[in-house]
Prior knowledge:
binds NADPH dihydro-nicotinamide-adenine-dinucleotide phosphate; 41% helix; 2 domains; 282 residues; six-stranded parallel sheet; Rossmann fold; three-stranded parallel sheet; alpha/beta
Amino acid sequence: xxxxxxxxxxxxxxxxxxxxxxxxxxxxxxxxxxxxxxxxxxxxxxxxxxxxxxxxxxxxxxxxxxxxxxxxxxxxxxxxxxxxxxxxxxxxxxxxxxxxxxxxxxxxxxxxxxxxxxxxxxxxxxxxxxxxxxxxxxxxxxxxxxxxxxxxxxxxxxxxxxxxxxxxxxxxxxxxxxxxxxxxxxxxxxxxxxxxxxxxxxxxxxxxxxxxxxxxxxxxxxxxxxxxxxxxxxxxxxxxxxxxxxxxxxxxxxxxxxxxxxxxxxxxxxxxxxxxxxxxxx
Length: 282
Ligand code: NDP
């Protein structure tokens, strides 16, 4: 068997094109503000890519770059102003933040109706309760890939590796809401390979290069690799040993070109959704 390669780049491009069509038909331009505090170089790349994608679909998008010595109070004041601005539909605070700012304070300061990252405790709680709300972009992107691939989730055994607030936990909630039987594995899981072997759908989000070996994968399983790991030689690899997985899995996402491009497309989707919801309600 050779796994079908799930082309996230192509799926993301189609999603962005559909979103651009919907934006073009609106009587207003959804507004997105991306906040960057300090000079973390990776954040610079992410923020630029997000801003560019937002401009391309026709949003009114801007990046607010604050200095590294910005106080927490000053950042919260900027967020409060954006919360109050009727032209702003989505607010994103790029992480990591400088040490003097508590990320949970920044996240909690964003109006939940404008929280396009889906990290606010209210949106996390809604997701855990199975209620509609804004959902974190990366797990949302994974659900799109699974849908496009025609994967049957009802009754499937899903294993999520990783339990972060950003990926693992919301991923598990979404799969549960899609009627999977979900196992969440993490650094304290006793026999992680055995847990993985039970999976019809395996989502890896641990940040450990090629941790998931070929013999951890059940024949025919669908493997989604969220990991992005830079090796010493400069290569970018996922959390799954891709070459070992391909002969075993039924379908697999590559790294790069799998989940990564979906995250930004889903940020656009979240912002459009937030705009439509907020502007429809008084
Ligand atoms: P975190 O570091 O926040 O979480 C990692 C999780 O993996 C933790 O729950 C941790 O367990 C678990 N873990 C770590 N090591 C092991 C191990 N040896 N065995 C089992 N479990 C382990 O990472 P994120 O969730 O933020 O990101 C995960 C990966 O996804 C990273 O490679 C990141 O770069 C990538 N990523 C990709 C995105 C994309 O757009 N494609 C977006 C976001 C992240 P414990 O809780 O017990 O410590």
